[in-house]
Design brief:
- This protein is 74% helix and 0% strand.
- It has 509 residues and is mainly α.
- Helix 2 packs across helix 3 and helix 4 crosses helix 5.
């Protein structure tokens, strides 16, 4: 099916609006899970490391399953996936209100809600890209702020609902709000196909021509037919040997006509079976070639010094940078900060400043005189220093300032696709971004439990956040070293000077 040209407006703005609310409704509770985290600690009495797995799974499962999510959206479309995922998110939240223990929450909140959020994110981004071309950056920037504003509002909302209705009532109400995703999904009208149908192709011709490395000669088809003829003749001999010689079947037609019809029918059948066997053989070989090409491209990506450093940086960034959004409320409680001093939840400050950071850092990335890679490195180094400063904060004001700084710097997610594109090129963006997002999800899943285990071990968050800051700093410094331009002077053969970014010289891919 061939789609019409992206309208860059019209119904596309409705798509942006409903995608914004979809991300708002699905990511509001998982990103503001720090409020629920405190209640789960008191309700189940488990260790902080084990309890932190709930929020980690909710944020990491969607990223880990990003290849599956992309396949579902490509196969079924954005609208059906959004409606189905809305049921998953709402059902998972409501089911969590009946959780008898923490292990049940691992499944209901961590896996079900997390996977639903991953599907919804992929669906909203995909359909937005279909409706926008020249304004795609603006559209994606608008819908991405939905999750940050959801974090800001849901942090205060969930605390208020817990105060009035308890933890179970809060999860039921939040799950009911998530049912509005179904209404948003119903408005995601797919882009209409073009009126001119594409010429139909046979099954064998529909296989891409660029995988013609396995094209075989026609003799293979003839060999397949000859093999079938031999097997058929052997089968006829066995039948004639086992048949009773005295029994005969009278045929109303002459023997010659019957034999000719039977021979023609047999040849037609053998030819069809041979063609199908030949096609399956070719298709299997081409699928294998696709797999080999994918592995070869992956190896080529990791030969790029900057990409390898970017892979390490994003893994360490998510291990160290994600825990504050989950644990800041408990950090304040552990620091004996009076609840009367709380003007606004710390998680809400993180959320609103993340939205600001996404917009401002995205605007800075559009300036030609700013190197996007170095801008990303700067956010990592400053975030590492801010994380190391959290153990020194003993008042609400200092914790609020650090939360604002961390939230703003977490907005570097908006420039991460720019960095990936400049590192590997637009033609390899999808492949490279999928690999990086997988390891980002792995970092999201491991970060909060590791920090929680440090607390269970030392009964303080000091060493835990020193570890988090060290991880982010190491990732930023490794990426900085890989991006320095002097790597190009280490090669013996002269290379032309880069035209856009100095760090492109470091690429050997």
């Amino acid at each position: 099916m061939e789609f019409k040209k992206s309208p860059d407006g019209g119904w596309g703005w409705v798509i942006v609006l409903v995608s914004f609310f979809t991300q708002f409704l699905c990511y509001g509770s998982p990103l503001a899970v720090g409020v629920l985290y405190i209640e789960w600690l008191d309700a189940f009495g488990e260790g902080k490391g084990k309890t932190a797995w709930i929020g980690s799974l909710a944020s990491g499962v969607g990223l880990l399953a990003s290849p599956v999510c992309s396949f579902c959206v490509s196969s079924f479309g954005a609208r059906p996936v959004t409606i189905f995922s809305g049921f998953m998110v709402a059902g998972g939240l409501m089911l969590s209100s009946f959780a008898p223990n923490i292990y049940f929450l691992f499944f209901s909140y961590g896996i079900v809600v997390g996977l639903g959020c991953g599907l919804l994110y992929t669906a909203t981004v995909t359909i937005t890209c279909q409706y926008f071309d020249s304004r795609r950056g603006l559209a994606l920037g608008l819908i991405s702020t939905g999750s940050s504003i959801g974090l800001f509002i849901y942090a205060a909302l969930q605390r208020l609902l817990i105060e009035f209705y308890g933890l179970d009532g809060c999860l039921l109400i939040v799950g009911a709000l998530a049912l509005n995703i179904l209404a948003c999904g119903s408005l995601m009208r797919p882009l209409q196909s073009s009126d001119c149908p594409l010429p139909e192709k046979t099954a064998l011709e529909s296989v891409p021509d660029r995988y013609s490395i396995y094209n075989e000669k026609e003799k293979n088809l003839e060999e397949s037919i000859s093999i079938l003829e031999k097997s058929y003749s052997n089968e006829e001999k066995c039948k004639s040997t086992l048949a009773n010689g005295d029994w005969k079947q009278e045929s109303p037609l002459p023997k010659n006509s019957t034999a000719m019809a039977h021979t023609k029918e047999t040849e037609t059948y053998k030819k069809k079976v041979a063609e199908q066997t030949y096609f399956c053989k070719q298709l299997a070989k081409r699928k294998w070639q696709l797999y080999k090409n994918y592995c070869g491209e992956t190896v080529a990506l990791f030969k790029n010094k900057v990409f390898s450093a970017l892979f390490i940086a994003i893994l360490l960034f998510d291990i160290g940078g994600f825990p504050p959004s989950l644990l800041m409320e408990d950090v304040a409680r552990s620091s004996n900060v009076n609840e009367e001093d709380f003007i606004m939840p710390l998680v809400s400050i993180l959320g609103i400043m993340t939205a600001v950071g996404k917009l401002l850092l995205g605007i800075l990335a559009d300036f030609k005189w700013i190197n996007t890679l170095y801008l990303y490195i700067a956010t990592l180094i400053i975030m590492g220093l801010a994380l190391c400063a959290i153990p020194l904060a003993k008042s609400y004001v200092t914790l609020a300032i650090l939360s604002a700084i961390l939230g703003f710097l977490t907005g570097n997610w908006s420039i991460f696709p720019y960095v990936t594109t400049k590192t590997v090129g637009i033609e390899k963006l999808a492949h490279a971004y999928g690999i990086l997002m997988f390891f980002a999800g792995l970092g999201n899943s491991l970060g909060p439990p590791i920090v929680g285990w440090f607390y269970d071990w030392t009964q303080t968050y000091d060493i835990a956040f020193y570890f988090s800051g060290f991880c982010v700093l190491i990732g930023g410094l490794i990426l900085l070293l890989a991006a320095l331009p002097f790597w190009g002077t280490c090669n013996k053969l002269p290379k032309p000077a880069p035209t856009m970014y100095l760090y492109k010289v470091a690429s050997n891919a």
